Every structure is written in structure tokens, then in C-alpha cells.
């Protein structure tokens, strides 16, 4: 079917439209081939665009409208346009449907995964410090009845669920255009309306809220912070946001209400102590998702290839939601599948949030467990928005269990008890950890019985920011899909050449297992002359759970360094020195000596030109009032980093803080440590989510589906990537994941044909609930649920 469709496309495709409003789903390519069908077709030799590579950050600092038109056009094609020929036909799409619930004989989940059990068992003891309300909220009866009655039978679930099974509504033929318009109006008002969910408890009428950037779309920007506000920028936690708000209030800055200037992202760069404002904007598709989540309160799953800005978007969403619910921070829960991923976004694991421990028991048992733990129960009752990052590693069974727990604990029959879900990840990346005990095949979240009813919108981010070289982005895209053309294979094999750089910073080598990483780094460190300096982390928090929580952190408990050691920065310093930047320890110094001498004195091998360049880069020291170690005379490492533009930058590294916080802002554990790790070698697991300028990947040792893709897609360019032992057989995409994304594509085709004004982002499920509920009509007055009545009274329809 895809082959057929592609032939038709080649023959009949109209010229690409320029509107961003029509995005493809889900494409990872920034070239003109950014079409889901291209992701699933075998690329031909001429398929690669020849557009020259360009620095991602250079582009990133531009406003959307400033981007070169070739690139822009490349990302703005649409399935709607490409498939406007009726031949291609939604009527055939039924035949394309893939049974998500079927087992796949090709897949055998392997048990060899690097994750620790700790990643999933942090702290069922995580507690809040308030009591559970004595009376649970109740759901309006009509709403319950309506939900049950109107739901069609679910697609065959893999296990019986009480309610809320997945409707295969994306199978349903597209609705007429006018229905879509009505859908849009009504979506504002009812159905899940997750963010208003708790309103049903006391039911004040929902407010119509317009965010500033909704008025001026281009004005929302993500900015690197001022030197003094950098700490807050690095720390997306609730307490940091509170601190920042207080600071801003005290300073009475007039721009506090300006989008992009408040919250945790102030502006600036730091060279020579000057204040140069540098910023990049969220793309339009990122802003649309942000709006959908924050303004419209929709439950969304946004996905996309590696480097499409999912993490950047998620951080912006977290920040905005925390501002929205600043009065009651427990309304927003930030979670991720693993401890490491959770730390990266200032959250806790999904297991920790839910208070289910390992979560192996049946839902009824888990519910009892939560009810015995009033603080865990309160988390469930209080939360309005649940963020889940790296969803690809969450088990589908767990997703169903949590959905049922949410319904029961919150006494609310809607999916997850009415909690708004904000989920991101890429199922082509690392899969869930197989369950060693039950030996059952892994189940992805999209295979969960409750997945479809839990998500209002599935959105594909299509613009790749990490790799600006379209040929490289295409190669990675083929790899993502597990379909490598002969040309791409040749190109990857050509990347086996050795690379060396004359700035002394080597490539980071990615390994699949932690042991390999530790052995490699220790050997390299031992081989360096001189004594190692040891930096012990300063940990605080509840001793009962602290160590367990902190063991998930990227930042090590103990860090041994020598002059010559290769290190990686694990926090964003400014726009050009970011998480993932590689560097080399060139000296040790206290801050005063460093400031007095200047950076030049720390490198005797520098030639004149380099010295001249570096003189401009002096002054990377932090505000002494924000850092107790600044005046302590502590001997700290002086590191020469190679920034994202390839320029050397020397900084004196000082300790940073990492926190594990509950949604109420209570700090469970805190670590203060240098923001460095040894980086001759890194694990693929730790590299997930990172952007690396120089990296060597040995595919000989890769064992898991998605692993090779995760490893290679960390690289920003072919020039900074060495690939050893490339073999097609190592490139494995999970067939059920392929089927899932194909199905999204066919839905996108269907919905794009029905829309007079195509959605701003490739939102493939936006209309599915409406589609399967039949033609859109206002419910008769006596059948309206309280939410609908309230919305009607507010004049929404
Ligand atoms: N709107 C944007 N403008 C410019 N650069 C961006 C934008 N969004 C993201 N980036 C940059 O693109 C790179 C990749 O972003 P990010 O890590 O968020 O992608 P991702 O989709 O989460 O990737 P992965 O799935 O591999 O973790 C980062 O260097 C980030 O700074």
C-alpha cells in the first residue's frame, strides 16, 4: 500500500505549499522529503537534498520567519497537499490498518538492558506533608453516563480493562469540513477538558484564557539567561521558578509580563562580562503545542525524530504550566520513565509519583497500596497536569494500570480520572525494559488499551534542529525506520575514518553498557601523569531515600580529575556552552588566581592567534553572591571547552546544584557537584537526550532496537561522527513501532483531506473522538453535563 501510494505521489504530487499550517507527520528530515511516506520508502540515490549544512544554533537564533526559504519550504510540505489526489484514497486506508494488539513474531525483547532497577523503584515513600481530604470529589453522573454510553467498542485489548479502552477511531472515515470547524469550537469547551477537570469538584465556570503569544505568535522566545539568572535557567524546579518570580518581582522589571522575559529564561551571554542577548524562538509547531497544552488544556502526545526539539518544548511547557498553577504547584507533576530522564527535566519517575513501588501487582492491589499512603493518594488527587517524558520506555501495562488507578482514586470515570496528560518521546528510540520475571513480550504505551482515549491530540514535530545537514538528517531518518538504502549504507561506512582535532579534545565514545564506560574512563584517567584530584558531591535530603534518588543522576557522587582529562559539561552554561559540550581539564585553580591571571596563563601551548582569540573570552566566573565556593579558595578545575561553533572557551568550573523535588516543591534530595563527567566514554543510556558535537559509535556492541539510532542521532554532523562496525543488521526498528507510525500517517492523510484550514501542526488525532461520535451536534440541553452547561453559559456555543 505504501509502495503504491509512493508511486502515485511521485507521479502526481503538487508543488509543496509554503504554509506551515500544513505539516507532515512525522518527519525528521529538514529537506524537501520530509514526508512520512519518505520515512517508510527506500530512498533513491538522488533523494538527498543538497542544501548545504548550516549551524543549528545559528539558525536556532533566528526567528522562524528569518530562516532560509529552502529550509523553510522543506519543512512545510503537507500530507494534505501531497495527497490531495483522491486516488490515494482514504477509502483504502482501512486495508492499511495495523493491528496494534497483535503480537509480532519477529520481535523478541532482549533482557540485556543497562537500566537499573533503581530507575523504577525510587521512592514509594515519597510523601507530601498534608493529609488527604476526607471526602473524595465525585464525578457528575451525567458525564459518567455519557462517557460510557457513547463510547464505541474498543479495538481488541490485550487485557480486559474496566473502562476506557482504545477506540480505533482513526480508522473512521473523515468528517466533513464543517464538522471539523464545530469540533474546534467544541473542543474548547467539553469532552475531557482535562485542565478544567477539578472544576467539576466545585465547578466554577472555566475562564477563557488567552496567552500573550496567542496574540503575537512570534513573540514567544526561549532565551539563554543573564549571568545572574543562569542558575534558575538551569533548574526548572518549582522552587527555582518561585525564587525567580520573587526576584523579578523585587526588581520590578517592567518586562515581567512580556512573553519570554519572565520565568526561568532571562537573556544573555557572558563573554567579557558583557551582556549580549542571544535567543532562539520556539518554532511555530512547538508554539502551537504549547498553546494547545497551556491555553486549551488538552491532553497531548507530541512525538518526532531525535533532535526535533521535544525536550526544549517540554521544558517550555513545564515552565508555563508551573506559572499557570503557581498558587498550587502540586497541580503540575513532572515525571519521566527513568530516573535520569526525570532528572533532566527536574522531575521524578512516574513510579515515584504514583506511589506504586515497582508496580508489579494488579491494579486493585496497587490502589490499596496507594490508599494506605495518604501522601501518594494526595498526589493523585491534587494533580491536574501530568507530564511524562521519554514515554517510549514506559511499559504499556503500566500505562493501563495507572489510568485505572487515576479513575478509581479520583473517583472519576474519565481517562486517568480526568488528569490532563502531556506526554512526549519517540517510540523509535529505546523501548521499555522487558519484565524479567514474567518474560512477557514488551508492550509499548501506544498498545495500551487506554492509550487512545487518554490522548486528545497526537502531534508530530517535523523540524529537525540538531542536524542541519539535510543529507545526514535523511541518513538518520532511514536508520530510525530501520530501512537503510545502499547509498546510506555506503555513507555510514565512509564515516569509519579516524577523526582527530588539533584542539586536544577527543571524540566521546558511546558504549551500550555502564561497565564498558567505567572501565574505559578509568583506564584513560590512569594513563595520564600526575595525581588525580577528587571532588566529592555534597548531598542533602532525607537519608532514607536520598541515595536512591541521587543514584539516578547524571552527576556522579565522586569525580576524579587530572590535567588532561576529557570531560563533558552536564548543565547548560550559556547558549554556546551547553549540556553535552566536550572539554579538557587544562589546570586547577582557585577563583581569585583564575581571575587575576586570565585564561591565557592556563595554556602554554597556545599559538598567538589562539591566545588573541581567548583574550576575548575571559571572565567566565559566577556571581560570588550566588555561590559559596567562589570565595572559599577551593581548587577547581579549569576546563577548555570546544563550544558549539567549534571555538575554544576556558572556564573555571564551580559546583552546581541538582534537586529532586515533589510537585509541591518539597526537595527530596539535593546534590552539589561540579557540572562535569569524565567523557572519553559515555553510555548510550546517559547519552539519550544529549546533543554531541564529536562522537564515536561502535555498532558492533549494539544489542537493542533503537539503540543504534539513539547513539548516532546524538551527533550534530557527519564531520563530528565516527561510526565503527557499521552493519545493516545492527539497525533495528521495531516492526510494531513502524506500524504505529504508519497508522498515524494514514490518519493524517484522512484528516488532512477533510480540513478546509489544515491544522497548524500535524495533529493526527485531533478529530478522532468527534469522528467516531458521529456528526457534531450540540447535545440537547437536558443532556449537557455540567462542564458543557458552564461553557454554554460562558458563550462558547
Ligand atoms: N526552536 C528551536 N530553535 C533552535 N534550536 C532548537 C529549537 N528547539 C530545539 N532546538 C535545539 O535542537 C537540539 C535538539 O533539541 P532537543 O534535545 O529538544 O530534541 P529532542 O527532540 O528532545 O531530541 P531527542 O529525542 O534526541 O532527545 C538542541 O540543541 C536544541 O537546543
From TrEMBL:
Q: Which residues bind DNA?
A: 707-726
- Source organism: Emericellopsis cladophorae
Where in the numbering of this chain does the AAA+ ATPase domain appear? Answer: 296-456
Q: Where in the cell is it found?
A: Nucleus, Nucleolus; Nucleus; Mitochondrion
This entry's Enzyme Commission designation comes to: 5.6.2.3
Q: Where is this region: Disordered?
A: 1-78, 130-278, 772-797
Similarity comment text for this entry: Belongs to the helicase family. PIF1 subfamily.
Q: Which residues bind ATP?
A: 304-311
Family matches, as HAMAP family: PIF1
Molecular function per GO: 5'-3' DNA helicase activity; ATP binding; hydrolase activity; single-stranded DNA binding
Q: What is this protein called?
A: ATP-dependent DNA helicase PIF1
Q: Which reaction does it catalyse?
A: ATP + H2O = ADP + phosphate + H(+)
Q: Compositional bias (Basic and acidic residues) spans?
A: 178-195
Amino acid at each position: 500500500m505504501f509502495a503504491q501510494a509512493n508511486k502515485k505521489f511521485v507521479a502526481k504530487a503538487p508543488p509543496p505549499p509554503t504554509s506551515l499550517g500544513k505539516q507532515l507527520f512525522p518527519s525528521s528530515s529538514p529537506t524537501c522529503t520530509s514526508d512520512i511516506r519518505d520515512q517508510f520508502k527506500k530512498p533513491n540515490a538522488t533523494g538527498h537534498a543538497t542544501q548545504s549544512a548550516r549551524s543549528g544554533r545559528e539558525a536556532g537564533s533566528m526567528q522562524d520567519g528569518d530562516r532560509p526559504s529552502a529550509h523553510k519550504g522543506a519543512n512545510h510540505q503537507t500530507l494534505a497537499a501531497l495527497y490531495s489526489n483522491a486516488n490515494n484514497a482514504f477509502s483504502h486506508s482501512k486495508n492499511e490498518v495495523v493491528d496494534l494488539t497483535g503480537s509480532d513474531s519477529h520481535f523478541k525483547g532482549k533482557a540485556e538492558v543497562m537500566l537499573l532497577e533503581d530507575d523504577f523503584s525510587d521512592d514509594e515513600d515519597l510523601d507530601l506533608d498534608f493529609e488527604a481530604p476526607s471526602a473524595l470529589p465525585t464525578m457528575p453522573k451525567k458525564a459518567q453516563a455519557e462517557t460510557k454510553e457513547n463510547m464505541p467498542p474498543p479495538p481488541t485489548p490485550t487485557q480486559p480493562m474496566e473502562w476506557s479502552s482504545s477506540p480505533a477511531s482513526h480508522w473512521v472515515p473523515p468528517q466533513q469540513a464543517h464538522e471539523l470547524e464545530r469540533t474546534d469550537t467544541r473542543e474548547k469547551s467539553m469532552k475531557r477538558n482535562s485542565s478544567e477537570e477539578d472544576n467539576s469538584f466545585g465547578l466554577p465556570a472555566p475562564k477563557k484564557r488567552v496567552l500573550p503569544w496567542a496574540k503575537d505568535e512570534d513573540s514567544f522566545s526561549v532565551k539563554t539567561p543573564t549571568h545572574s539568572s543562569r542558575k534558575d535557567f538551569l533548574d526548572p524546579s518549582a522552587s527555582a521558578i518561585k525564587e525567580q518570580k520573587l526576584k523579578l518581582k523585587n526588581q520590578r522589571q517592567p518586562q515581567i509580563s512580556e512573553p519570554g522575559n519572565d520565568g526561568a529564561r532571562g537573556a544573555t551571554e557572558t563573554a567579557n562580562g558583557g551582556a549580549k542577548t542571544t535567543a532562539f524562538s520556539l518554532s511555530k509547531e512547538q508554539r502551537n503545542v504549547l498553546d494547545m497544552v497551556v491555553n486549551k488544556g488538552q491532553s497531548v502526545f507530541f512525538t518526532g525524530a531525535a533532535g526535533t526539539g521535544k525536550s526544549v518544548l517540554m521544558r517550555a511547557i513545564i515552565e508555563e504550566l508551573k506559572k499557570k498553577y503557581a498558587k498550587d504547584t502540586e497541580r503540575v507533576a513532572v515525571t519521566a520513565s527513568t530516573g535520569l530522564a526525570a532528572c533532566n527535566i527536574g522531575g521524578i519517575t512516574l513510579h515515584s509519583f504514583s506511589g506504586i513501588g515497582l508496580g508489579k501487582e494488579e491494579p486493585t492491589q496497587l490502589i490499596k497500596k496507594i490508599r494506605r499512603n495518604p501522601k501518594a493518594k494526595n498526589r493523585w488527587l491534587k494533580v491536574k497536569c501530568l507530564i511524562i517524558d521519554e514515554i517510549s520506555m514506559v511499559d504499556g501495562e503500566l500505562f493501563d494500570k495507572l489510568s485505572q488507578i487515576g479513575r478509581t482514586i479520583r473517583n472519576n470515570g474519565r481517562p486517568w480520572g480526568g488528569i490532563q496528560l502531556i506526554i512526549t518521546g519517540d517510540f523509535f528510540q529505546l523501548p521499555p525494559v522487558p519484565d524479567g520475571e514474567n518474560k512477557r513480550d514488551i508492550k509499548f504505551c501506544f498498545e495500551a488499551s487506554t492509550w487512545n482515549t487518554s490522548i486528545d491530540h497526537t502531534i508530530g514535530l517535523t523540524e529537525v534542529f540538531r542536524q542541519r545537514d539535510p543529507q545526514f538528517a535523511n541518513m538518520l531518518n532511514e536508520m530510525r525506520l530501520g530501512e537503510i538504502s545502499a547509498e546510506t549504507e555506503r555513507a555510514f561506512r565512509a564515516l569509519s575514518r579516524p577523526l582527530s582535532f588539533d584542539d586536544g579534545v577527543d571524540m566521546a565514545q558511546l558504549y551500550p553498557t555502564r561497565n564498558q564506560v567505567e572501565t574505559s574512563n578509568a583506564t584513560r584517567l590512569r594513563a595520564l601523569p600526575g595525581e588525580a584530584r577528587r571532588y566529592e558531591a555534597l548531598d542533602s535530603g532525607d537519608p532514607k531515600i536520598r541515595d536512591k534518588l541521587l543514584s539516578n543522576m547524571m552527576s556522579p557522587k565522586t569525580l576524579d580529575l587530572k590535567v588532561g582529562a576529557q570531560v563533558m559539561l552536564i548543565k547548560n552554561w550559556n547558549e554556546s556552552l551547553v549540556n553535552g559540550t566536550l572539554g579538557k581539564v587544562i589546570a586547577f585553580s582557585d577563583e581569585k588566581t583564575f581571575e587575576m591571571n586570565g585564561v591565557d596563563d592556563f595554556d602554554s601551548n597556545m599559538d598567538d592567534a589562539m591566545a588573541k582569540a581567548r583574550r576575548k573570552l575571559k571572565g567566565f566566573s559566577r556571581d560570588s553572591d550566588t555561590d559559596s565556593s567562589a570565595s572559599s579558595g577551593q581548587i577547581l578545575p579549569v576546563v577548555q571547552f570546544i563550544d558549539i561553533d567549534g571555538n575554544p572557551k576556558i572556564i573555571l568550573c564551580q559546583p552546581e546544584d541538582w534537586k529532586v523535588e515533589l510537585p509541591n516543591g518539597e526537595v527530596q534530595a539535593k546534590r552539589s557537584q561540579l557540572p562535569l563527567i569524565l567523557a572519553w566514554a559515555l553510555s548510550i543510556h546517559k547519552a539519550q537526550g544529549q546533543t554531541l558535537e564529536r562522537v564515536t559509535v561502535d555498532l558492533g556492541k549494539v544489542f537493542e532496537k533503537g539503540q543504534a539510532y539513539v547513539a548516532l542521532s546524538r551527533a550534530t554532523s557527519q564531520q563530528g561522527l565516527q561510526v565503527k562496525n557499521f552493519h545493516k543488521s545492527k539497525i533495528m526498528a521495531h516492526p510494531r513501532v513502524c506500524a504505529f507510525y504508519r497508522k498515524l500517517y494514514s490518519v493524517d492523510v484522512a484528516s488532512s483531506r477533510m480540513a478546509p484550514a489544515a491544522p497548524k501542526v500535524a495533529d493526527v488525532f485531533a478529530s478522532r473522538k468527534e469522528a467516531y461520535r458521529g456528526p457534531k451536534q450540540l447535545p440537547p440541553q437536558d443532556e449537557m453535563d455540567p462542564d458543557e452547561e458552564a461553557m454554554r453559559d460562558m458563550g462558547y456555543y
